[in-house]
Amino acid sequence: MVKDDVDPRRSALMSRIRSSGTAPELAVRRMLHANGLRFRLHRKDLPGRPDIVLPRHRLVIFIHGCFWHQHSDCRLASKPKTRPDYWQPKLAGNVERDARNTSALQALGWRVETIWECDTRKEHLLRARIDGIVSSLNGSPLPVTPQG
Ligand SMILES: [Zn+2]
Description:
Strand content: 5-15%
Order of helices and strands: HHEEEHEHH
Oligomer: single chain
Helix content: 40-55%
Bound molecules: zinc ion
């Protein structure tokens, strides 16, 4: 069978997702920066290539598109009505892979947070989400070496 059924709209979407600067990602990064957090992007040596990695805090953050990662009970995650035979296994596969990556990361000692696209669309929702993450970090501060 020849694999030539790539929908150009879909591949454009995919390449945008692969690139390292989707709007939701940029919004999250900006807010983390504003909180003075240092992080790295898309570490290839970690399962699932997490979007944001905070090595000091042993924390990874995935910024997930609600559709591609099937955010439950989210209106952005509605299944396409056309070609269910194509979409169902594909989307189910994404969800499965996410679960696998999360387990693998946790097994390596990482805490895993997921920020959903829909939360990044509203400033106050995103702020609440980031505040939650930041305060969880402050709740278990790393030892600070006194100066001098
Ligand atoms: Zn969502």
